[in-house]
Specification:
The protein is of the alpha/beta class. Helices cover 42% and strands 17% of the residues. The protein contains five helices and four strands. Residues 116-151 form the GTP-binding protein middle domain.
């Protein structure tokens, strides 16, 4: 059984694509749209932005975050997918701000592999990759269980 399975029905997703002035950081929005469709999500709309570099807290900045919140409500979407790799803190911050599931490009690709793995070995390899990817996002997730230090 794969740990991070998606729902059977397609989720409505708002897509986020940022154009960076650095040529090495550019991603193709057309390819991104095809990846989203391959994963089984239903793209509602594409939010685009242009930045010199990602915002350290939310990747897209506070203004675009508000615009993204409005698009989620307008399209009744339950998922946001970024066409870029987010840091664990950026992903967590955007999830907390928007109160919905956030997926980056790496997570999307792992999700597609998980859906298409057929052999037992293939499924295990995908699950291992998903667990390694998620392990960095679980940091501080269990701090409430730590013991207090006695004097």
């Amino acid at each position: 059984m794969i740990v991070f399975e998606r729902p059977d029905a397609g989720e409505t997703a708002v897509l986020v694509h940022v154009d960076f002035h650095d040529e090495q950081k550019r991603e193709d929005p057309g390819e991104f749209l095809e990846l989203v469709r391959s994963a089984g999500a239903e793209p509602a709309t594409l939010l685009t932005a242009s930045r010199h570099r990602p915002d350290s807290r939310t990747f897209i900045g506070s203004g675009k975050l508000e615009e993204l919140r409005a698009l989620l409500a307008a399209h009744e979407a339950e998922l946001v997918i970024f066409n870029h790799s987010l840091s664990p803190s950026q992903e967590r911050n955007v999830e907390q701000e928007l109160k919905c599931r956030v997926l980056d490009r790496t997570g999307l690709i792992l999700d597609i592999f998980a859906q298409r793995a057929r052999t037992h070995e293939g499924k295990l390899q995908v699950e291992l990759a998903q667990l390694e990817y998620m392990s960095t996002r679980l940091v501080r997730g269990w701090t409430h269980l730590e013991r207090q230090k006695a004097g």
